[in-house]
Amino acid sequence: MELMAVSWAYWHQFFFIIFAGSAIGFGCGVLISQNIVRMAFYLVLSLGSTAGLFFLAGAEFVGAMQLMIYVGGTMVLLIFGVMLTAQKDFVNMKTHTHDWILATVVGGSLLMVLLFVAFGSEDWRSPQDPTDAHIVDTKAATPLGLALTGVRVDKLDDLNDPLNQGKSGYLMPFIIISVHLLVVLIGAAYMARTKKLSHATGLRSSRARLSVFKMEEEDEVLEEETYVVLRKDKQATNPLDTNDDNADNLDEA
Amino acid sequence: MAEFFNEYIFGNGPWSWLGYVVAALIACILVIHVVAVGAMGFIWLERKVAGRIQDRLGPTRVGGKFGWLQTLADGIKLIAKEDFTPDVADRFLFKIAPYVAFAASFSAFIALPFADGVVANHVNTAVFFVLAVLGLEVFGVILAGYGSGSKWSLFGAMREAAQVVSYEVPLGMCVVVPVFLCGTMNLTTIGNMQEGFITNWLVFNDPFTFVIAMVYFTCATASVNRAPFDLAEAESELVAGFHTEYSGLRWSLFFMAEYGSMFLVSGLAVILFFGGSNGPIPVGDWLANLLGGVKEGSIGANLPSLGAITVGVIGVANFILKGVIGVIVMIWIRWTFPRLRIDQVMSMCLKYCVPIAAFGFIGAVGWEVLDLPTPNNLDEKSRYEYHEKWSHEYLETQQQTKPAANDRHARQAVPTEAIITTVAVSQNAVEVNGGKQ
Asked: What is the ipTM, given to two decimal places?
């Protein structure tokens, strides 16, 4: 075969098979495993293998992105997963039959769409001589970054393109997404804050801790402080209703 | 390197794959030795420096006057220890966790250039890659904490993970500054742009980069869990955190990973701020000129000239020396500062490191925009020569691309990839034209 003519083509295929195989294998591992931590472990390995595929294709920026966002993100997910569910009821997840059916329908239809697109692309139907496909030393990161900040370097000479006038690139979507993420971040911080104080059962103890903490910090206003805390405690007959207000007051105090 | 082996040993026939295997093995072995032998050296150094700081001698017996072989003796002891797995442990995760931590620390070295061209793999976005892989080390920690089947280990792992993840924010903000000053994420290029005298190092570029370098080093120390940020482990007080249940060689793998990442983050600091493989005085370049060799970009396919070898060797020596100095500073900090409490660690990150990094970032941008004086003698033009020069290449090749506009690649190219494909296609066009002429 022509494919075998160049020696590095072997290595390309060799590593492609290794990475693709491990991506698929660990993906199946996620499906089969029932332990949540192992699932996350397999998922990280599967996503890491996908990053390997990107590196193999010469898309280093996308590969590093995959590692940073997907693998790193899954890891943070794992941290929270273990932190929140490290109890016997949740560590082992049992999948019901209707879950399986639903997952098969959704996943299967997605797979069909992907396969349709994959085989619909002319270039991907028949194997090509890999020497023809240019694995260039990608300089994708710089044009990408410029496109995100407003200049489309690939459109500079295209006089007919409407983008050429302002060369506006992807600045607008970029700003929208970043504002959106900022909102999400603030929301997350807010939720984390209220959650900490709104535990109905742990309310009293957390207040006690708070007052102790204040005691250490400000000796002079100690008496007033604890008095306020105790008074608020008595007022709050139903802690779930009023604890948010209390929390705010405490913060201000 | 593979081409070199094929040319001189295996020939270009059916055995040419051996050249690639040998080249890959050499790169692997060299990188593993950076981590493994480096860890041995650093552990000895840690004991010795700690001893001197505490007015003791440190190891003095094994292997001569200075106790050179103390770590080797420790290693033999660790190998002889029982490889113990607790009853309630998740066996698979417990056993694999040290390897995950070690592999993460080790694979970041793939993209770390030790000198101009002395790098296992030229990754164009090396800064990003190193940061991404460095963040994966904490994964081994979590697996270890969970897999041990002990609440103690789990809490230790969670605290460590929370700390490492939160310190990645200011770390990333600090790394951005040299990246935008140099206009590239390629570590080799960033290193090369600080050529010349010590004044060209980015740490001295302006006052803000100096501050940023210090913040980077602080955050790096925290993100590899070194004292004074090691409250998650605190071997002396808490009997260690996530690796309480480990013993023997598996335990030592965690430490190899820790010392490996120590060298990694200080190596990254060296490249980003402290001149990379360039010494304070460009002796290497003078020597290379004296020897008459051209300074080659890479010790690669062909036999390099004598000058290139000199520059390479001096560069590697410079880099390792500066990296080791960084590690010594970390050890020095560990044995002189008291350990922080968790609230102090968090306020250090959120109240000091993040705002200072953000402020320094804006300041460095302003300094560059206002064109304020800097000791760096690389002006805009000569700096540009180090760049990837993608825009010039693009503009030059754009004219030649026009006839090839109907080409399959050009037609189907999606916007973000268009430039890559057009450059590739135009290179083709140049070749075709050259052939015709």
From this structure: 0.76
